Amino acid sequence: MNSENFSLSEKIVSTSYVRQGSQARRSHEQLIRLLLEQGKCPEEGWSESTVELFLSELAVMDSNNFLGNCGVGEREGRVASSLVARRHYRLIHGIGRSGDIAAVQPKAAGSSLLNKLTNSVVMDILKLSGVRSVASCFVVPLATGMSLTLCFLTLRHRRPKARYIIWPRIDQKSCFKAMITAGFEPVVVENVLEGDELRTDLEAVERKIEELGAENILCVHSTTSCFAPRVPDRLEELSILCAKQNIPHIVNNAYGVQSSKCMHLIQQGARVGRIDAFVQSLDKNFMVPVGGAIIAGFDESFIQEISQMYPGRASASPSLDVLITLLTLGASGYKKLLSERKEMYLLLAQELKSLASAHGERLLNTPHNPISLAMSLDGLQAESNGAVTQLGSMLFTRQVSGARVIPLGKEQTIGGHTFRGFMSHSDAYPCPYLNAASAVGITREDVTLCMKRLEKCLKTLKKEKNMAKSSPVLPPCQEDTTGE
Asked: Is residue 341 part of an annotated ligand binding site?
């Protein structure tokens, strides 16, 4: 309804009523105008009606929704199912063009506007979360691993002779496979044990650079968010080293946006040294479906190179999901979620420490990890070899998701490289342990239920052990040889 249609409506319905309706619509339009003017996440979240009005306005700008459109091409935004069309708000054309995921589509002005606004709003959130000097970013419809691969493939054109990627070890398959998929040889640098924490071995990284030669190294591939007792890499020191040796630096910041500490490390690393790009997951940081990531950096031209490396058009679903989420939450709503996550981290640490003490275990001291916690399972290991893995199975069947139980001595081969002590980020971590994380969206009820069920599992295992000890050992049965 434009002003002309509202004027015509006054001939049908009372003028005062129509003007009231017109004012109500203008309040929606004012919010949309501010978004278009500023390109920032609104401070207060929008109502669902405002979000839906905005998406409807975008959709009518795409050619597949033109009333008189006559499509004779191979891609005309045709959708067989009306349910699918509604699921996507009739934004069918996706984002980008064959040469650049960030390019504007002539057929789809609305989808193109959605893409540009999403990237702008997401960059505002990255700044709000702590990386104030980020220069450019874009949402890509790939999860974190493939997004890292895209970064490595882009660097290949800048460093055609490079074969190796220096990688401080983190036992997570997708970031390792990202390097192999891009055609490079990961050089695994083992971590050093400092107290309970596994930290970056900077001297070993320097030795590898000397040994291989800086010109043969594509980049250093570091990590922020990770499972305790592994802690974020020493990003400042690695960034200084990369700047000194003129080696690119890619950071896997998978679920680090929700942590002010992880974001501060990236900001500081870029300030004192070199960080070329940092990659973060959409689902882990913004509570949207799996399938998208943000690739961001401090050099706009390099981030543009990465976007141009993406072959073909791309799905708009991740962009649509994260834009709807951020418009609904608003900056204040997202900041509130981050604040609540920190509170739950402290609660989870307190509860785990208390539970560990009651069962003769301890909460591992990992102050440099702002998201993940670990509790030792030495006593459980001593009871039987299978008790540690049995605990993991028991928790899963009792609907405790996300808790990881790490036994000693597990081996895993990925892409021809064998990791000893896999999942513990170390060849020989001193003890088995259980992981739990305070990630964005966690609630007090989650923590309470997890602790209740974990305690019940530990008591059950202890009871089974005591029963096994107290059961008499019966002599083997004698075979009847009487023939009767």
From this structure: no
**Mean pLDDT, range 245-264, rounded to an integer:** 97
Residue 481 confidence (pLDDT): 45
Q: How far apart are CA 209 and CA 202, in angstroms?
A: 11
What is the residue-wise DSSP string for 145-171?
A: HHHHHHHHHHHHHH-TT--EEEEE---
Specify the pTM.
0.93
- 410 is annotated as contributing to ligand binding: no
Bond from prior residue into 311 cis (ω within 30 degrees of 0)? no
CB 42 within 8 A of CB 33: no
- Retrieve residue 401's tokens: 């998701």
Check whether 159 is labelled as a binding-site residue: no
Q: Give the pLDDT score at 472.
A: 58
Pairing of strands 293-297, 136-140: antiparallel
The annotation status of 398 as a binding-site residue, yes or no, is yes
Residue 390 assigned to a binding site? no
Strand partners, 252: 223, 279
- Helices 173-181 and 144-158: angle between axes, nearest 10 degrees: 30
Mapping DSSP to helix (H, G, I), strand (E, B) and coil, where does residue 312 land? Answer: coil
98 annotated as belonging to a binding site for a ligand: yes
With contact defined as beta carbons under 8 Å apart, do 269 and 251 qualify?
Answer: yes
On the CB side of 59, CA atoms within 13 Å amount to 18
CA geometry: angle 282, 288, 289, nearest 5 deg: 95
Instruction: Please indicate if the annotation marks 463 as binding a ligand.
Output: yes
The H or E element containing residue 418 is strand 417-420
Task: Average the pLDDT over each of 9-23, 192-206, 354-368, 404-418 and give the range with the smallest value.
Answer: 9-23
Q: Is 469 within any annotated ligand binding site? A: no
CA distances to 149, 325, 375 from 228, rounded to whole Å, are 25, 29, 9
Cβ(137)–Cβ(279) under 8 Å?
no
Residues comprising the chain, all counted: 484
Report long-range pairs for 352-360 (Cβ below 8 Å, ≥24 apart).
352/436, 352/451, 355/451, 355/454, 355/455, 355/458, 358/455, 359/455, 359/458, 359/462
